[in-house]
Design brief:
single chain, 224 residues, mainly alpha, 59% helix, disordered C terminus, ANK repeat, Ankyrin_rpt, Ankyrin_rpt-contain_sf
């Protein structure tokens, strides 16, 4: 490698470091300058040794405008996975950055159905942390994701995650979204607990009221 080639490699590496630093800070000005100077810089992200892309970082931290510019210039970043098999949508959903979730879904709603190495969807991440508004966007963008809650990870369905982490509004949203489908009641976790057994085990009487209320509303809807 001659001197000119070495200099180019150094310049490219410096640009990439600036890009990642900007993604941490959400510095839109730096991002625009980097893209203007080198329109191919975002295409080179997949060649970096880092498993997280700038979009992963910006999505995790909730830098909305930064995410918008990244997605506008390189929509394929929405499909990139980190070392845990998580896409940016997993991270934004987990943190409850609803506006970022919307942008990611507008770019590629199919990412709702991507499972990480633990077999978890973005919906699982939002549910186990009680991010109700993010959950609404995920379900609205890809209603099929609610039909996949039965597979979940070894802790059971996404509804059981809500019970484990005491997120009752999230549980209510999921039950209502299932529209009276009672199959989720029979799904069991690794300890052979169904949703109802888990609620009783944790003395969460509120879960029983939620299920009863949703059942009554479902019957009323059928009558109407």
């Amino acid at each position: 490698m001659d001197i000119l080639e070495e200099k180019k490699v150094e310049d490219d590496d410096d640009e990439m470091r600036k890009l990642y630093d900007a993604s941490m800070k959400g510095c839109v000005g730096t991002l625009k300058k980097l893209v203007q100077k080198n329109p191919l810089i975002l295409s080179r992200v997949s060649l970096c040794p880092f498993t997280e892309t700038p979009l992963h970082i910006a999505s995790l931290l909730g830098h909305l405008e930064f995410c918008q510019i990244l997605l506008r210039n390189s929509p394929s970043l929405a499909t990139e996975l980190d070392s845990e098999g998580r896409c940016p949508l997993h991270l934004a959903s987990a943190k409850g950055h609803t506006e970022v979730v919307k942008e990611l879904l507008n770019t590629n709603p199919e990412m709702c159905l991507v499972r990480d190495k633990d077999d978890m969807l973005p919906l699982h991440f939002a549910a186990m942390r009680g991010r109700v508004e993010a959950m609404k966007e995920l379900i609205k963008a890809k209603p099929d994701s609610i039909e996949m809650v039965e597979s979940g990870d070894e802790d059971g369905s996404v509804l059981q995650l809500c019970v484990r982490y005491n997120h009752f509004e999230a549980l209510k949203l999921l039950v209502e979204s299932l529209r009276g489908d009672r199959r989720f009641l029979s799904v069991k976790d690794k300890e052979d607990n169904s949703l109802l057994c888990l609620a009783v085990k944790h003395r969460q009487i509120k879960v029983l009221f939620i299920l009863k209320e949703c059942k009554c509303n479902s019957k009323k809807g059928e009558i109407d």
